[in-house]
C-alpha cells in the first residue's frame, strides 16, 4: 500500500497551511501533545507498576486499573488530535521518516495490546498480585508481570521514537 | 545587576569544554533531552494521580493518604531524574538558556509550584486528615491540587517554548523584553 499520496494530500490541506501560519498556536499544540502523553503514559505506568507489585502493593488492583481507564482515553484523544495537527505541518518529512513509522507501529500495538491482553490478563491477576480475593480463572504471576513489562516497553518506544522525530 | 550576574555565571559555564562537547554531541544531547521529556510521564504522571485524587475526581475509593504516601517515592525518583537531566541541559546551553524569557518564567513557576507543594504537604499532615476517606476533599485541598496541576502544565508549556527563538536576544525587541530576558549586551546599547 502506498501511503505517500495521503501525506501529499495532508501537506496540501488547509489544516497544514493553518498549522504552518500560527507558530505560537503550534507550540501550544505541541505542549498539549506532551501533557496528553503525561496523562496517557502516566496512567499506564501506574497500572503496570502496580501489577509488578512495585507501587501500591496490597491495594486492590481492580480499583486502580478501573480508575485509570477514563484518563487513558482522554489522554489518547488529546494525543491523536494534537498529533494530527502537528503532523499536518511536516507531512512530507513524516512520510519518509522511520522514527515516525516506528512510533505509529508502537502506538497501534500499544492500543491493541492494552484493550486485549493487558486488560484480560490484569482482570485475571492472582491474589498475590491483585489483592482482591481468590479467583477461579487466575493466571500465573509471571504472566501478569510479563504483560506489565511489555506494556511499559511498548509505550516507552512510542514516546522515545516520538521525541526522536524532532532530532532526525 | 542580577542580569549581569546571571550572564557572568552563564558565560563562565560556557567556557567549559564539557559544555560545548555535550551541546555538540548529537546522541548524548538527544538522550539527555529525551530522558528529560520522557521522565515527565513518571514525575508528572504520579503527581497527576495524586492531584486528581485531591481534586476528588479520580481514585475516590482509595484514601487520599494512601496515594500521597505510597506514590511519593516513584514521583520523587522522577523528580530527581528531571533535575539531573535539566541541569545537564542548562549546562550544555548556558548563555541562551539564561537569556531565555521562557526559561525565566519556568523557574519562577517552578518556585511557585514548590511553595504550593509545601502548603499542600502542610495541609495534609496525618492529624488533619479527617477527610482522608471522603470522595471529595475540602475546598482548600482542591484549590491546592488545581493550582498544582495548572502550575506544572505551564512549566511544561514554558519548557517546550524554550526551543523557539521568537524572543531571543538577537531579535528586535522592546526595551522591556531585553530587560526581562536579561539581554545584557543589547541593553547596554540603549545607554
Tell me what portion of residues of chain B adopts beta-strand conformation.
under 5%
Give helix % range of chain B: over 70%
Q: List low-pLDDT spans of chain B.
A: none
Mean pLDDT of chain A: 96
Number of strands of chain A: 0
CA gyration radius of chain A, whole angstroms: 19 Å
| Largest sheet data of chain B | none
Distance between the termini of chain B: 15 Å
Fraction of helical residues of chain A: over 70%
Backbone shape of chain A: elongated
Distance between the termini of chain A: 24 Å
Element pattern of chain A in H and E: HHHHHHHH
Helix count from the secondary structure assignment of chain A: 8
Low-confidence stretches of chain A: none
Biggest sheet character of chain A = none
| Largest interface, C-beta closer than 8 angstroms, per-chain residues | A-B, 32 and 31 residues
Strand coverage percent of chain A:
under 5%
Counting helices, strands and paired strands, the structural category of chain A is: mainly alpha
- Our Rg estimate of chain B from Cα atoms comes to 20 Å
Amino acid at each position: 500500500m502506498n501511503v505517500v499520496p495521503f501525506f501529499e494530500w495532508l501537506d496540501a490541506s488547509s489544516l497544514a497551511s493553518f498549522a504552518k501560519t500560527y507558530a505560537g498556536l503550534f507550540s501550544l499544540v505541541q505542549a498539549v501533545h506532551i501533557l496528553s502523553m503525561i496523562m496517557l503514559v502516566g496512567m499506564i505506568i501506574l497500572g503496570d507498576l502496580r501489577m509488578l507489585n512495585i507501587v501500591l502493593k496490597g491495594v486492590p488492583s481492580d480499583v486502580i486499573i478501573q480508575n485509570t481507564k477514563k484518563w487513558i482515553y482522554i489522554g489518547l484523544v488529546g494525543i491523536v488530535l494534537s498529533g494530527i495537527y502537528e503532523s499536518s505541518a511536516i507531512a512530507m518529512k513524516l512520510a519518509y521518516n522511520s522514527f515516525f513509522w516506528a512510533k505509529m507501529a508502537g502506538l497501534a500495538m500499544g492500543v491493541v495490546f492494552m484493550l486485549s491482553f493487558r486488560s484480560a490478563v490484569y482482570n485475571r491477576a492472582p491474589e498475590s498480585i491483585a489483592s482482591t480475593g481468590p479467583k477461579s480463572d487466575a493466571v500465573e504471576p509471571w504472566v501478569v508481570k510479563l504483560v506489565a513489562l511489555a506494556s511499559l516497553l511498548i509505550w516507552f518506544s512510542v514516546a522515545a521514537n516520538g521525541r526522536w522525530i524532532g532530532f532526525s | 545587576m542580577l542580569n549581569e550576574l546571571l550572564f557572568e555565571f552563564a558565560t563562565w559555564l560556557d567556557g567549559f569544554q564539557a559544555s560545548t562537547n555535550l551541546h555538540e554531541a548529537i546522541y548524548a544531547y538527544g538522550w539527555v533531552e529525551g530522558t528529560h521529556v520522557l521522565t515527565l510521564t513518571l514525575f508528572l504522571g504520579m503527581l497527576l494521580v495524586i492531584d486528581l485524587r485531591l481534586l476528588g475526581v479520580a481514585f475516590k475509593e482509595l484514601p487520599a493518604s494512601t496515594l500521597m504516601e505510597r506514590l511519593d517515592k516513584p514521583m520523587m525518583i522522577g523528580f530527581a531524574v528531571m533535575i539531573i537531566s535539566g541541569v545537564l541541559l542548562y549546562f550544555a546551553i548556558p548563555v541562551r538558556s539564561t537569556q531565555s524569557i521562557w526559561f525565566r518564567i519556568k523557574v519562577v513557576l517552578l518556585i511557585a509550584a514548590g511553595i504550593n507543594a509545601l502548603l499542600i504537604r502542610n495541609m495534609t499532615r496525618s492529624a488533619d486528615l479527617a477527610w482522608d476517606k471522603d470522595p471529595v476533599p475540602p475546598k482548600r485541598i482542591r484549590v491546592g491540587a488545581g493550582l498544582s496541576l495548572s502550575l506544572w502544565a505551564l512549566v511544561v508549556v514554558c519548557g517546550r517554548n524554550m526551543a523557539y527563538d521568537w524572543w531571543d536576544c538577537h531579535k528586535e525587541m522592546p526595551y522591556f523584553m531585553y530587560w526581562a530576558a536579561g539581554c545584557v549586551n543589547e541593553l547596554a546599547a540603549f545607554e
